[in-house]
Amino acid sequence: DKLPRAPVDVVRLHVARWRVGLASRGARRAVGVRDVCRPGARVVQREAGASSQQAFRRAVLREGAELPGGPVAAGHLDVARRVVAGAQAGVTMEPAAVVYRLRFAALEEHAVELWIDARWREHPAVERLHDVLGSAAFRARVGLVGGYDLAASGARRGER
To answer: What is the C-alpha separation between 121 and 101, in angstroms, rounded?
Structure first.
């Protein structure tokens, strides 16, 4: 568990997991980090603070390479649209690649949890939120997008 400690005791509700990485089109295999670190390569990237961009930066550093050049997109779907329009590859999340039927090479798995101050654990709204996140309807609706791991949605994680 790589998450920081909360400043107060919290109830942690798991929402979803997804993979971030490189989306590409057309090739027999997904484009990998080595492919996009070649001289002259251009990759559609995210803003420096985006967790997907940070994952890409870590992967490039592990390869001992320099971050390639390329435009910065406004979001995951913008990256995917630019790849469809002709870019060699783009830094995005798997759900965006799935929507645009792109190949995908995962770099990291990311997760989101809702942290709620533990003083509110018995509040009816917290209970309803827990119910919604754990429901088959929520999983079915979000699952329509594809690329999200929803198996543990609604699970209460160890409280902090």
So the answer is: 41
Residue 89 is predicted with a pLDDT of 96
- Confidence bin at 4 (pLDDT 50/70/90): confident
CA 9, 2, 66: angle at the middle one, nearest 5?
145
What is residue 29's predicted lDDT score, i.e. its pLDDT? 80
Over residues 43-61, mean pLDDT = 97
Residue 159's contacts (CB-CB under 8 Å, 6 or more residues apart) are 9, 10, 11, 12, 118
Nearest to 123 by CA among 4, 5, 13: 13
Domain 19-110 -> CATH class: alpha beta
Backbone φ and ψ of 80, nearest 5°: -60, -40
Domain locations in the chain as residue ranges: 10-16+111-157, 19-110
The amino acid that residue 2 corresponds to is: K
